[in-house]
Write a structure and sequence with these properties.
The protein is 46% helix and 11% strand. The protein is an alpha/beta fold and 442 residues long. It folds into three domains: 206 residues, Ribonuclease H-like superfamily/Ribonuclease H (Nucleotidyltransferase, domain 5); 91 residues, DNA polymerase, domain 1 (Orthogonal Bundle), CATH 1.10.150; 103 residues, HRDC domain (DNA polymerase, domain 1, Orthogonal Bundle). The strands form two sheets. It has a seven-stranded mixed beta sheet, with helices on both faces. Strand 4 and strand 5 form a beta hairpin. The longest helix is centred in the middle third of the chain and has 21 residues.
Length: 442
């Protein structure tokens, strides 16, 4: 067990390097007594079917730890200890890091604090790099070296280890600072909700029809979708067998084109540009067999076409709503990239216009996002509110204004004002005279 000194600004912590099984077992036993840790990993993903875990970096309040998984054979015990000990795990953009835990033990840690999400919830752009977050909130500059390191090579130099540790060195004090800001803004529960949502999405992705994530197959028939599905599953099996990325077996665009041609004839397959390459020609018999299997399926076993919103939408409406959402997020000090994008707005608008409350609400109508948006977008769509340019030079140049009400709406507003629900405002509410915040209608 190798211990050395490392300087982290004004806060030096000892560094422990673990590369022996006995040291690893001792560390896992000690970990049970810890309440929290900062975590990062180094991995290589471009050459294998699954990311290749090369290094685990850990920071406690009083110690830094580096685990080399190569000589250990398995680090499953580390992930089990985190789960069993209910240790809080602090990460930055920890989706892949925590996926290693899920792949090892079948669940994510129950207590996760992601500083990237937390920073987005208090107004920093999302997704933000760790260096930007540290500079913004702690005034710490982290130099970026070794960005092209092949973490599979051994031995690793002291400089490489120091670089890797910089990804966890300041996470715990950063976490505490961001937590104070979240508490001040009453958004700490939002962080927990968003972390759980992203974890649930990752779990669902494991079981869903991942072949539907392919792009470029719009307009194909259900029969052609059956071919695409069969080819995708074959490519996954072949990639796993060879331990290479699936696209290295066969490109996505070739999968789609094979599905569109809908022919198992090897000559027609080879006629597709790119299929006659020497690295692919030997795959043609297997590809032909997959297509034959798909063509033999009865129609009831063909995949369904993607569900598309039944309401036509002008792209101008989406752009307008995104401008409103961005302005609202600036006003409320929250990253618009975390709240949602144009596709989310299209889903939200289709849901609002369809009037079908039996469908599950879109993401913008759920949880903390619904709290952020409130009725603002609905008022804009209903023509009861508008956007104007208040100050072209300001960081947030747009301003929401509320338009003249109908007689019935005016009477309702007067009644609600008399009950103290709204502040008193001018009797004649017009776009030129009435200026109100995005949160509170007049």
């Amino acid at each position: 067990m190798n211990r050395e000194s490392a300087t982290a600004g004004d806060h030096p912590h000892p560094v422990r390097r673990i590369a022996a099984v006995n040291d690893f077992e001792v560390f896992c036993r000690e970990l049970r007594r810890r309440s929290r840790l900062a975590l990062d990993t180094e991995f290589v993903a471009e050459d294998s079917y699954q990311p290749n875990l090369c290094l685990i970096q850990i920071a406690f309040d009083d110690e830094l730890v580096v685990i080399d998984p190569f000589p250990l054979g398995s680090v499953r015990r580390f992930w089990e200890t985190i789960i069993e000990g209910n240790v809080e795990v602090v990460v930055h953009a920890g989706r892949v890091d925590l996926q290693f835990c899920y792949n090892a033990v079948g669940q994510f840690p129950s207590r996760v604090f992601d500083v990237q999400i937390a920073a987005g919830l208090i107004g920093l752009e999302y997704p933000a790099g760790l260096a930007n977050i540290l500079q913004k909130y702690l005034g710490i500059s982290v130099t970026k070296h070794e960005t092209r390191t092949d973490w599979r090579r051994r031995p690793l130099s002291d400089k490489q280890i120091e670089y890797a540790l910089n990804d966890v060195r300041y996470l715990l004090p950063l976490r505490d600072h961001l937590e104070r800001e979240l508490v001040r803004l009453h958004r700490l529960e939002w962080l927990s909700e968003e972390v759980q949502r992203q974890q649930q999405m990752a779990i669902q992705a494991e079981g869903e029809e991942r072949w539907r994530r392919l792009t470029g197959y719009g307009g194909v028939s259900r029969r052609e979708l059956a071919i695409l599905r069969e080819l995708w599953h074959w490519r996954e099996r072949e990639a796993a067998r060879r331990n290479v990325p699936p696209r290295r077996v066969l490109r996505d665009d070739l999968l789609v084109e094979l599905a569109r041609r809908a022919s198992s004839d090897p000559k027609r397959i080879l006629a597709i540009r790119g299929m006659s390459h020497h690295s692919i020609r030997h795959l043609v018999p297997m590809i032909s067999a997959c297509i034959r299997e798909a063509l033999a399926l009865p129609p009831e076993k063909w995949p369904q076409l993607p569900n598309r919103p039944g309401v036509q939408q002008s792209p101008v409406v989406g752009q307008f709503l995104y401008s409103a959402l961005a302005s609202l997020c600036l006003k409320k000090q929250i990253a618009v990239g975390l709240v949602g994008g144009t596709n989310d707005l299209r889903d939200w608008l289709a849901y609002q216009l369809s009037g079908n409350t039996d469908d599950p609400p879109p993401i913008l109508a759920q949880g903390w996002r619904r709290e952020v948006i409130g009725d603002t977008l609905q008022m804009l769509v209903a023509g009861r509110a508008a956007l104007r340019i208040a100050d072209p030079t300001a960081d947030n140049p747009l301003e929401l204004i509320f338009l003249a009400q109908t007689d019935a709406e005016s009477r309702e507003t007067v009644d609600r004002q008399s009950e103290g629900q709204f502040p008193q405002g001018p009797e004649d509410v017009t776009a030129s005279s009435q200026e109100e915040s995005c949160e509170t209608p007049p």
